[in-house]
Amino acid sequence: GKATLLGYTTYDHSDCAVIQLKGNINFDSDQRELSDNHLEHGVEFEDGTVSAILYWDHNSHMARFSKSKVNVLMDVKNPLHPNAKSQLPTEESLTVYSAIRRQ
Questions:
Q1: Which residues pair with 10 in a beta bridge?
Q2: Can you give the pTM of this predicted structure?
Q3: pLDDT-based confidence at 75, cuts 50/70/90?
């Protein structure tokens, strides 16, 4: 994967580095074996991509905000044609906010 520093910003009263993350999801043979167990249910996972924007609070050593997107291609058994598969592109988005309680 790749991480790129895009700059700095103030987020919720904290100085944060803005970092862009990009990478590929590559399933190894053990993970594919687990994926193959899903084939009896008609689902097989292909490789994919992940990207994220991260606000890193360097004073607190933690991510204060992140927004991630994961794309994976799935092969799904076609219920109308048992020997055929359909490709189903999937996208998952995850947004995380972290607060620091100041006393």
A1: 15
A2: 0.74
A3: confident
